Amino acid sequence: MQKPSIPKGTRDFTPQEMANRNYIFNTIKDVFRLYGFQQIETPAMENLSTLMGKYGEEGDKLLFKILNSGDYMNGLADDELLGRNSIKLTNKISEKGLRYDLTVPFARFVVQHQNEISFPFKRYQIQPVWRADRPQKGRYREFYQCDVDVVGSDSLLNELELIQIVDEVYRRLKINVVIKINNRKILSGIAEIIGEAEKITDITVAIDKMDKIGLEKVNEEIASKGISDEAIAKLQPILKLSGTNAEKLNQLKTVLADSEVGLKGVSELETIFGLCEAMKVQTTIELDLTLARGLNYYTGAIFEVKALDVEMGSITGGGRYDNLTGVFGMEGVSGVGISFGADRIYDVLNQLNLYPETSQEQTRILFVSFGEKELMYCLPWLSALRNKGVNAEIYPEPAKMKKQMSYADNKRIPFVAIVGETEMKENKVMLKNMKTGEQSLASLEELVELV
Amino acid sequence: MQKPSIPKGTRDFTPQEMANRNYIFNTIKDVFRLYGFQQIETPAMENLSTLMGKYGEEGDKLLFKILNSGDYMNGLADDELLGRNSIKLTNKISEKGLRYDLTVPFARFVVQHQNEISFPFKRYQIQPVWRADRPQKGRYREFYQCDVDVVGSDSLLNELELIQIVDEVYRRLKINVVIKINNRKILSGIAEIIGEAEKITDITVAIDKMDKIGLEKVNEEIASKGISDEAIAKLQPILKLSGTNAEKLNQLKTVLADSEVGLKGVSELETIFGLCEAMKVQTTIELDLTLARGLNYYTGAIFEVKALDVEMGSITGGGRYDNLTGVFGMEGVSGVGISFGADRIYDVLNQLNLYPETSQEQTRILFVSFGEKELMYCLPWLSALRNKGVNAEIYPEPAKMKKQMSYADNKRIPFVAIVGETEMKENKVMLKNMKTGEQSLASLEELVELV
User: Which residues does the UniProt record annotate as the domain Aminoacyl-transfer RNA synthetases class-II family profile (chains A, B) (predicted)?
Assistant: First the structure.
């Protein structure tokens, strides 16, 4: 007999867990829709030709690949087989893979459906993705992403609206967060000024350690990467950047005075900060020059959201890209988007115990079963409640009272209706409030009211 | 440059299609919850040891199998490789597969979580499944199932509630359907009476052709399967069964008088019909002895639902099973369940054009963009509307009026707000009803009211 289990890195979700997850998904969806974003879905499987080469060499390895159907070994040459080169053979026996994120499928979707959609295209997509990563705490092989993007518009209003969405989602979820923001053009400007364009990653990695190791060590680390003394001298004002966002931007304007692209980046951030202020965005927004997610990919604003009251990596992130669809033959489509990490948000809410007590998905009332006669009395009551939109159920067979009550407890059903001779005679039910233990006779009208 | 495409048998869903699909899913979910069913989810990937051998030899072939990660060819012997036996090699290079239905994962779930769930366990599950079937009209390689099951109760009340759920779902979706019902015990009884237990499938296949080919040809077909003349003579009253459900059951009582299990089946159906009548189920329920879905699997009632106004296979089906979890080591768990085929329902609604005109997911109002000053005027209006829960958006950049209007048309946005000097001076907007073309000046309060 098999003892059943599931693949490592994957999870089942019980009803209580699903209610909690749906609370997150529904909150996010409601806000997306408030801002005019519309849902799309793409298949779990994509052609490997769509996926391969989009996530780097490491990403290619982490794709889950689907074995071709039928007699896939047929036609393979002896030396191919005996070479035992798993990577080469994969191309021969597999042509589909599970999606790795929602971005590449979205780019593919936009190109494939370009004549059906109207631009600017504001879409959201909430689906699982799969990665053959080594599973560990907070890292799963199947997890949900909630992506929201606008493509076909380079207006900074879109950046504002994404920030407003973050602000609103976390306000509703009651999670305290900080939004970190940077701009790829500022990073390009810095690299330009110091004449070390290709070292920009080394520099941001070093800057990132400022709080921990201090200015001196940061300078040492930068020097160790082969960056010239002259360039390091020019970097000093950037390393010492401090104050409010406005003050930082002012200092950057001086430093980047000779870089057109750098000044463009500063000006974009000024516009975004100005719009956020005008729109009274509540969440703290922090200019963070060390923020450099997917450097080769983003071309403008870069965002990252961190939860303040719990140790957890970034729970939302994204930015502006100018050529998402180029790889599929559609050039010049600018877009900006962010992705909410639903599984990390789920873990944060679990840690902080921030779920609402009641869920719309729960049963509101359980009718206790005694026997045939009581059953036939209760059934029309059940129908009447359901017709009023009340989630209601009856224990399906006469069982011990204790068993039926603990069923109600386990399902967190707030009310139980008990029916005996007296109740039937008076055309009422005995309604028990499971939280307070209070009992009272109720007519159907009273029941609808109370439940 | 790659021309992007998706694997055959899979589909993308555009925003309009998603709104239509969500209408189906939400309708089904709402009804499931009204009856106290709770949602679970299981991973897309299951261990092949969980899936293999559960769907017959053909089913095993139709499973999508995931290639092991890493150097999966390593360690395979020369003769294994050169044998090129795809089936044998699959066991060596793949240990996970995509779920084929929701029933086996559910059985696995119940066994694995038996100590966390309270029985009777009423669960629903709405997730995609994958089958490497040859794609054709109405048959996809990725499609959604919506399963609803009660396990751990053999009360016929559960059968009633599933019928009520079917009745309510299709009433809400406005699809005219007939519910066909049979009972596995009656089929066993028939086999017992005529002494041809193992020929029951041949017999039901033949009975199924009665309408098309008539009694004589049906008898010929049965005889051709090697069934004795005596048995065929005993079958005649069953083949000639006619009248109302009650009349049919009465005739069956006579025919099956010597079969205990057969009479049990008749009595179960009588109870179910009685309950349906008491609860005023509106949908026609038809006793259909040819209904024999998954004969080896079901042990009591068998259901199937057909749409009346469109050519389409069964759109919902299910039945009672007495040993769902036995294969995973948990014996004696009786259950009953049905599965709604969301993709077929989607096709039916498309054919009959039965979607509601407006969807809660749509944007209600678009603000037209003219320039900086108008933008700053409009943004607080947008916020105010969103705070009232109104889905609202602004065209993100100043573009030609015609372009903005056709954007609203394409997204089926019912209202457009236009702002110029006059409106700003009066603290109003010009509201255009996109359906009627009517325009009127509106204050914020009036806007919330109208939209």
Answer: 1-380
